[in-house]
Amino acid sequence: MAGIKALVGLSFSGAIGLTFLLLGCALEQYGVYWPLFVLIFYILSPIPTFISRRVSDDDSSSNACRELAYFFTTGIVVSAFGLPIILARKGTIVWGACGLVMTGNAVIFLTIFGFFVVFGGGDDFSWEQW
Q: Is residue 125 assigned to a domain?
């Protein structure tokens, strides 16, 4: 039952994050959809961690594959926060839209982190229970 509550909570927080992102694009005073390119970073951010968990069999505290995956994930997350700032500095989007997109970024990346904390802990978890 705890897994279902966690799944519902994560989906709710993901919906809140996407709402902030869409508000930063679709409100009448903003009206530019360039910030939606951060969706690419949302898709790319968990991929290095998935690959490193699949490739490395070592569960020690540190190994090169896992550290490289953390490095790439950090670069992707920083890029997702940097894109709206660059768009706002260039004048492509308004600073209010930048703030909404940054809020959405924070909520979405915390949701992705929460997914790894809740469902990525060990091998005892099975997707077949859903």
A: no
Q: Which pTM was predicted?
A: 0.85
Q: Does any domain span residue 58?
A: no
* Sequence-ordered list of residues with C-beta below 8 angstroms from that of 106, at least 6 positions apart, any chain: 17
Q: Report if residue 107 sits inside a domain.
A: yes
Tell me which residue range forms the domain holding 84.
Answer: 9-52+63-119
Residues 32-65 have pLDDT tens digits of: 999 999 999 999 999 998 888 888 776 666 788 8
Helix, strand and coil percent figures for the chain, each rounded to 5: 75, 0, 25
The answer to whether residue 103 sits within a structural domain is yes
Q: What is the pLDDT of residue 36?
A: 93
The number of folded domains in the chain is 1
Q: From CA 106, how far away is CA 9, in angstroms rounded?
A: 16
CA angle 78/100/111 to nearest 5° reads: 60
At 3-15, the pLDDT tens digits run 788 889 999 999 9
| Distance (Å, whole) CA 46 – CA 41 | 9
